[in-house]
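Data availability (excerpt). The following record was deposited with the supplementary files.
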Amino acid sequence: MFEQVKLGYDMNGLEPHIDQLTMETHYGKHHAAYTKTFNELAEKAGVSNLPVEEVLSTLDKISDETLRKGLRNQGGGYYNHNLYFSTLSPNAAKAPTGKLADEINKTFGSLDAVIEQLSKAAIGQFGSGWSFLSADKDGKLYVTASPNQDNPFSEGTGRTPILALDVWEHAYYLKYKNLRADYVKAFWEVLDWKAVEANYEKAVG
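Predicted structure:
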């Protein structure tokens, strides 16, 4: 059974950057619904015993188009939100260290530069979607944006997302209304680079 990531903070723990009502709605309702529906569809498709990453990476094996689309949307929603919420913290490390820091400097020039690229990708994403920082098996980093609940797994890139910035309206509209850029700026105040660093180390082995 696929389970929502357990929060390491209270619903009001990310204020004032992300407010309690948004957390209650986003995590407690939207993410919970993605998780519930994904479990139902995975059971129906006979893939509930597989890791979510494998389900999303092998969607072409699902012959039923409706079921395949459902797994892509609901499974993506489940995975993306687990990644998003697990990298937020009221005591966020403001910068990575070690191999991730080295790779960021090598690829983008600086931490500020990768933040700028991820922010630009998020703000520029038309409609609902995400921006991702992902790593391939060699440790190389990529900044991308995806529509809806797609991600590098369902898009077939072979890369592993290590950071996800949610720009669906339900992630920010209660507090920031149509000011997506203000929300994206606030996101970096609670993004825990220590968690992202752990994701990177796991992705590259």
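Summary of structural features: The chain has a mean pLDDT of 98.
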